[in-house]
Amino acid sequence: MAILDILSFPDPRLRNKAKPVARVGDAVRRLIDDMLETMYEAPGIGLAATQVNVAKRVVVIDLSEEKNQPLCLVNPEILEMDGAEQMEEGCLSVPGVYETVTRANHIRLRAFGRDGAPFEMEADDLLAVCIQHELDHLEGKLFVDYLSSLKRQRIRKKLEKENRQREAPEAGAYQVI
Ligand code: ZN
Q1: Span from the CA of 174 to the centroid of ligand 1 (angstroms)
Q2: In angstroms, what is the span from residue 4 Cα to ligand 1's centroid?
Q3: Higher pLDDT, 170 or 77
Q4: In the prediction, which pLDDT does 61 show?
Q5: Is-above-0.85 flag for pTM?
Q6: What is the pLDDT, as a whole number, of residue 140?
Q7: How far is the CA of 143 from the centre of ligand 1 (A)?
Q8: Catalytic residue among 89, 134, 160, 167
């Protein structure tokens, strides 16, 4: 398994639309395992393949405290959604930013699992919100898109600055003899 690099807003690659997975084979299973390891290490409760620069319709989620109940969604499709709920959301691709977003609080979903078998499930509250957030990623959409453009602009400036600082070599990284 491997830890993958998570793209940070406003990286334009986060806007790529993911394509359906044709077959859940070894390569997709390896991607799922790497995404789970990356998500657990971050740590986060959900990760979409587009966040690690893979344009495939794959999502992993784990809301458990013990991080031992992974939910893998391949080619997920929302069949029904209802209700409304406001929740403060964060995102591994928008580090340090938490904002309130309104989403459906109940959804019914169809997807394929890590074993390639199709299944249907229902989700409420945090799980429903998390799934909607991750499915947005597969469409190239981020939770900051629900905010005002002024707020999004402010977040973009803050993260651009932080991204630059992260890329710049640290002064202490060089050994001076
Ligand atoms: Zn996210």
Answers
A1: 34
A2: 15
A3: 77
A4: 98
A5: yes
A6: 98
A7: 7
A8: 134
